[in-house]
Amino acid sequence: MTEQNPEETPKGWDPVVDTYETAFQPFTAQYVDEVLRLADLKPSQEVLDIAAGTGALTLAAAKAGTNVTAIDFSPKMIDRLRVRLAEENLNNASVHVMDGQALGFPGESFDAVFSAFGVFFFPDRHKGFTEMHRVLRRNGCAGVIVWASPFRLTQFLREAMEEAVPEIPPPRPMAGVVELQDADKLLSEMSAAGFRDIDIHTVSRVWTTPSPIWLWEHAPGFTPRIVDVFDHIDAEQKNAVGAAFVRNLTDEFGEGPVHIERQAHIAIGWR
Ligand SMILES: C[S@@+](CC[C@H](N)C(=O)[O-])C[C@H]1O[C@@H](n2cnc3c(N)ncnc32)[C@H](O)[C@@H]1O
User: Fold this and answer.
1) Which residue of 121, 146, 205, 207 sits with most ligand 1 atoms within 8 Å of its CB, as the best mutation to test the pocket?
2) Which of 78, 199, 234, 246 has its C-alpha lying 20 to 30 A from 219's C-alpha?
3) pTM of the prediction?
């Protein structure tokens, strides 16, 4: 396994673009709809999407008529988002490869700033939140989405690895993801960066995918950390993990659609 957390490097995220877009973006888009509703955006407002990925929030905000700037440190994510925007004829969004902890925009450039499922990967979250605050105009709205509960799917994967390849350490959740499940911590970190009147809305959404087999076909590309683990095991070990994973999911859900529920905190704060 690599020393640095693969989630903290663009190289870690570049290989997961396809799986992210196919498997995850339809799930994160469900929470994004809610943060945009809470932020009550008006057409033509200037919006920044930090750690945009393949663009769940950027696409929705651009379709709502705002002018969106999307940044992500993974060049491959940004390339894909550029293609998506062109395919959907959305000319009111621009994309940039950029680190969310060092935004290349002047202060007070945006009416609203968002980050969906991104800040918990930043090694320096205070810098990330402070940068969000700096580029936001006075009375502007910041919306931050983080996970509020563990992911049953990665638990299935860990259980399958413990069963099939007990000698190999399974991927563990990232510290930042676990820490921000605590809503008070999220609130105090945003408050320390200068945001005021922060409200946290905890919502639940269901991720529906076609079948346990479909999930296994995508699982090795789910997250940078999982890619890293599967890069370091051989084909026989991987098949053994797959067999256990599919069997355990089938025991719980049958051979058809798999429904996995997960909670997220949506923090809305103001400058
Ligand atoms: C889980 S994805 C979320 C994507 C999208 N916001 C969504 O809700 O579907 C996390 C994204 O954060 C990006 N990311 C992680 N650390 C970053 C950093 N320091 N600066 C910019 N982007 C970062 C990754 O490249 C990845 O695209």
Assistant:
1) 121
2) 78
3) 0.95
